[in-house]
Hints:
alpha+beta, Arc Repressor Mutant, subunit A, three-stranded antiparallel beta sheet, 20% strand
Amino acid sequence: MALTLSHLRRFAIARTLFKPTTLKRAIEKLGFVQADPIRAPARAQDLTLRHRVLGYRAGDLERRYPRLPVEEDFFVNYGYVLRHHQGLMHPRTPRAAWSEAREAQARELLEFVRARKTAHPRAVDRHFAHGKITNWFGGSTNATTRLLDEMHYRGLLRVARRDSGTRVYAVRGAALAVAAQTATVDERIDALVDVIVRKYAPLPSRSFGQLMSLLCHGVPQWAAHRSTALKRALGRFAHARVEGIDWYWPDSESPLSRRWRIDDEVRLLTPFDPVVWDRRRFELFWGWAYRFEAYTPAPKRKLGYYALPILWRDQVIGWGNLSVVNGRLVCSFGYVGGQAPRDPKYRRGLEAELERMGEFLGLGYPRQVLNRPVSRCTKSERL
């Protein structure tokens, strides 16, 4: 049977939206869970896991993090990575070296954290009072908070837990630092590439290259190895050319297998869900451009502040904007075709998804749903 884009689309959906399991097993299957601080109506990591973990509630990852074999760290993006895989990335050597003064500050701060076992950024700032600096968005940030972030990135500190969303740090133990000391650089990079492909497959070749570039932020000390690592990867994964594009996936899987079945559930996905993360693949699969507009000025938004793609069967048919107002879930929806599908199975599926969302958020009824009319997306609106 000839492989088609339809096969790849169903393969992409079914392999990542696996049967819900325990939190630990879901993270092991995903390999990496991207994190984002915006709550609309919950953080990205929670919105990702709610589809894949039995009985998951918003905040469960944060609450259970100290008991899980995961670490917060930068991989291809910032998020939660299995402890073993984090060990493959360290010791991490950033491209920009510290000044002698910065080195001295880091040593002093490290001893402060070691003496207290764990340290909240507020406690660190009260003790050191390094002042304020300008952050990436032009605002003001405590200089000690920035130093904590830098030390975490370098592997000197780890996130021990979070208090109301704020990272609480501890010194990174020797046991975590020697997780993969016997592996060669090529073996480490290949193992990390395996994580990427398992999560985001099937990958168009350009997206594969993009993710390899992002991995250079996770292992900047090996940036010079990117080209050879990509060549090895393109040669060792299963692949096929479909409609003029080369696609890649784990060689233990087949997009033509009958195991990849699509159900009738309606799902509201986070913008960072592996089904929709790759905007290039998204447009190839569904023929319209999805944009994340949280940082777009409000007058220029077309989909909304934090539009959640609506997946029904094997199609992403629109998007929803959800928020919690006075304990009620307020929703508005837009559709690529200009209106919701008339199939009663879709309406029942959306109702069931909103009930699941309410349970996930710990909300009850009543719920307010606003159906906002939206124009059909055109080719000119594509990326």
